[in-house]
Specification:
The complex is a heterodimer of chains A (482) and B (322). Helices cover 11% and strands 43% of the residues of chain A. Chain A has 482 residues and is mostly beta strands. The chains are: A mainly beta (482), B mainly alpha (322).
């Protein structure tokens, strides 16, 4: 589910009392609604398990849910094939989240009202009731060991796209070590952004999975997004040992080959879990996301021709992942990353298609950069930009119905592409805290009262003065699926 | 790093903390966490919380504690087995076969004689293995400690665990070689013991009595269909020959499947195992290899004359005893 776009409405001061009134109204609404929901999320309905059996707190998977997914949405209990289901069973779930949120965006470019003309930077704060996008999940088995997943997903304006469309062959040669997935799918991140527990614009994604340096033009290094390709994955019978290898088309999951048609990348991950006794099951692993993306496009009257990208340049993201449980109530997930892009990306080449669309008529680089072979030369001294980052996400699970969460992400540039650039340009720090409370817990529906607060800070990227940006968002809402 | 204006930050934290605190206060105050399910009738109201007795389990050097499994039982088990362990979770009405009722402490998969309580290892293995042909999944992602805690938790639902000890595991003698003769004898026993009345002459679960069978709670129950599975097919209580041996020497409590421990000798039981494996016609195994070598024909069993020195000392031990 994509988050709502950050609002840029004019600032309307809100008193604390009005916000509290809204909070209480929401709270009493949830009390009234908590006993009446009777929905049928697809997998829980098929197998008769509570949401909590597979989800630490939905949508985040626990180890049993991860094994279920790794088995191709099968419990492997001889009742996985559709022939065992009531013919009326239709594996569809939808999810949408009505919310109230308050967004405060720092250093926004606004037209000056002082009479002197021009633009100034100003904080823009807005609040109000809103909606998330809408997801239609449908997935399951076509036959034993043949599974599928289709997810039409909209933004909050009901503009749909295919978030996931994939078929999967499971347990090939009778072995759980060999499964093949084909289509557009969720990358096999141990901490998956598609199962993130947070919903704010900046807290609802993992910054580490999307980071590119300031001015970098790499169109395809977004680990958090679903991608098009083929994946081979395998796991041990109890899912303690897992691996996956994906070959992906470097089009950032977009259909129609908008970028290069001959640029590919790969995502490789492996992990091992350990029985840590009373602590629980702890897991450590690594990932490597590396490949190439185009920097040069054929043009038609100056406009890039989709799919014509060539002059592929390289990029990589690699790191370690750990999930550590400390008894039944506390756990923490840690993800590290070292990233590096080609100097060409660092100088703004790469996403010519998107640059051209957002700057019509502009032909200078930056902001619109096309690498024309034999004509374009790389700036003297340009280097591969690189950075390091870490993500720490602890949870406190008071009960299967109530989970508190926090997250801290930090990203630090270790080398800027252009010599002389301030060393901390683009550095990111973001903090998120919140909780999810499920008033009921059955195998029929998911409902969470969600409350979250996020602060996002980035160095030197304000649009006019290149100073630091601070953004915050407070969000509360009903997150439900049916 | 520029910091947020303090007033801005504090205000935002307050906005988060106030609704959070109010929610939590009511969560705990109203006792929502103790509520059983959303399935409750409106006039019933909240049920009292389950009393967790200090039960333990012992699996090797691991000691399980019931109190430690409270959260896991709610998370993974209560949807089918019910918060009170009575097999009446909100999913029970949709399931076939029905979830186990822990309040009567009758368990299908045991290594102990019929009517006795299972060992802790029996329950531990059942959780980790799952029950095929039912909705009970394979919970092998748990730690051993989690499974041991859940075994202890299961014991809080029945007073039998406080009054009785688990039965003694039966002794399983070494398996004799698979021969055409053992298969032939097994087939004769299959007929003599009237297994076919429920399981059918070809083991397809379609015997003349099959449609009349009910479990101990009067729910309809189907006999096992041996022919359905392939190489990955499992019996409810395991997939080894030893597991099959255990099934008919201990019975499947709570179902019409009796124990034959008092009826047949250990070696006879092994012969029956060998024959039952041949009913799994799509399975690659030594039993079907022997049968294939005989062109798929099981000769009629010719009863041997009883040996003069046959001393059935083991026959006094219902479960065998070599």
């Amino acid at each position: 589910m994509r988050m709502w776009a950050q609002s840029h409405l004019c600032q309307k001061p809100r008193s604390a009392s009005s916000v509290l009134a809204a909070a209480f109204a929401l709270f009493f609404l949830i009390l009234g609604a908590s006993q009446s929901a009777s929905a049928l999320p697809a997998f829980a309905r098929k197998y008769g398990l509570r949401c909590s059996a597979c989800h630490e707190s939905w949508p985040m998977l626990n180890y049993f849910g991860q094994k279920f997914k790794d088995n191709g949405y099968q419990l492997m209990n001889d009742r996985d094939a559709p022939i065992w289901q009531n013919p009326g069973y239709w594996p569809v779930t939808f999810r949408i989240t009505p919310i109230w949120h308050r967004v405060s965006l720092g250093k926004q470019a606004v037209d000056s009202t002082s009479g002197e003309g021009g633009q100034i930077e100003q904080r823009v704060t807005s609040s109000g009731f809103d909606l998330s996008g809408l997801d239609f999940h449908t997935g399951g088995t076509l036959e034993k060991n043949f599974s599928f997943y289709v997810l039409p997903s909209s933004n909050s304006f009901a503009s749909f796209h295919f978030e996931t469309v994939m078929g999967r062959l499971d347990n090939l040669a009778g072995s759980p070590w060999f499964n093949v997935k084909f289509g557009k799918f969720e990358l096999d991140n141990l901490l998956s952004e598609k199962r993130i527990l947070t919903l704010t614009a900046n807290g609802g994604i993992y910054q580490l999975y999307h980071f590119i340096p300031a001015g970098d033009g790499n169109p395809f290094a977004q680990m958090g997004d679903n991608q098009l390709g083929v994946e081979v994955m395998g796991h041990s019978y109890n899912d303690r040992t897992r691996y996956s290898v994906s070959l992906l088309s470097s089009n950032d999951g977009q259909v129609g080959l908008p970028y290069g048609s001959e640029s590919y990348s790969t995502f490789i991950t492996a992990s091992q879990a350990f029985d840590a006794g009373k602590l629980g099951v702890d897991r450590v692993g690594f990932y490597l996301f590396a490949g190439q993306a185009p920097t040069s496009y054929l043009t038609n009257l100056g406009a890039p021709i989709s799919g014509s990208g060539t002059q592929n340049k390289g990029f990589s993201r690699e790191g370690f992942v750990g999930q550590f449980y400390f008894g039944q109530h506390a756990d923490v997930t840690v993800v590290t990353q070292h990233g590096e892009d080609s100097a060409w990306f660092g100088q703004g080449y790469g996403d010519f298609v998107d640059q051209y669309a957002s700057h019509p008529g502009v032909t200078t680089c930056p902001p619109v950069c096309n690498n024309i072979p034999g004509v374009t030369t790389l700036a003297a001294g340009a280097r591969n930009p690189s950075w390091n980052g870490v993500l720490i996400e602890p949870h406190y699970v008071y009960s299967p119905q109530l989970l508190f969460l926090a997250r801290y992400e930090t990203i630090r540039m270790s080398q800027q592409s252009t010599p002389g650039t301030r060393s901390d340009l683009g550095n990111v720090d973001t903090y998120t805290v919140g909780y999810r409370y499920n008033p009921f817990m059955t195998s029929r529906a998911g409902f969470a009262w969600h409350n979250e607060f996020n602060i996002f800070h980035q160095v030197g990227t304000s649009p006019l003065t290149s100073t630091n940006i601070n953004t915050s968002e407070l969000l509360m809402g009903f997150d439900f699926d049916f | 790093m520029n910091s947020l204006k303090p007033i801005h930050f504090i205000g935002a934290i307050l906005f988060t903390a106030v609704p959070c605190s109010v929610m939590l206060g009511l969560v705990f105050g109203a006792g929502f966490t103790a509520r059983a399910t959303a399935q409750e009738a409106p006039d019933v109201g909240p049920k009292p919380p389950i009393a967790i007795k200090p039960m333990e389990s012992h699996i090797g050097n691991i000691t399980g504690h019931a109190a430690a499994a409270k959260s896991d039982f709610r998370r993974y088990c209560a949807g089918c087995h019910g918060e009170y362990g009575d097999g009446n979770g909100e999913n029970a009405v949709w399931l076939d076969p029905k979830p186990r009722d822990f309040t009567i402490a009758a368990f299908k998969c045991r290594s102990t004689l019929t009517g006795t309580l299972p060992t802790d290892e029996d329950l531990f293995d059942t959780i980790g293995r799952g029950l095929t042909n039912s909705n009970m999944p394979v919970w092998n992602t748990f730690t051993k400690q989690q499974r041991a805690d859940l075994v202890a938790y299961i014991k809080i639902f029945s007073p039998r665990w406080e009054k009785e000890k688990a039965g003694e595991p039966i002794k399983i003698p070494a398996e004799p070689p698979v021969t055409l003769e053992s298969i032939s004898h097994g087939k004769a026993l299959f007929t003599k013991l009237e297994c076919w009345k429920c399981h059918g002459t070809h083991g397809e679960g379609d015997g003349p009595s099959a449609s009349t069978l009910t479990d101990s709670k009067d729910n309809p129950i189907r006999p096992y269909n041996f022919a359905l599975g392939k190489n990955d097919s499992r019996f409810k209580c395991g997939n080894t020959n030893q597991d099959i041996y255990k099934i008919f020497m201990t019975g499947v409590d709570g179902t019409p499947m009796p124990s034959f421990a008092d009826v047949i000798q250990p070696n006879d039981a092994w012969d029956l195992v060998h024959f039952l494996r041949t009913l799994q016609v799509n399975r690659h195994g030594k039993e079907n290899e022997v049968l294939s070598a005989a062109h798929g024909v099981i000769p009629a069993y010719v009863e041997k004359a009883p040996a003069a020195a046959a001393a059935p000392a083991d026959s006094k031990s219902p479960g065998g005893g070599q």
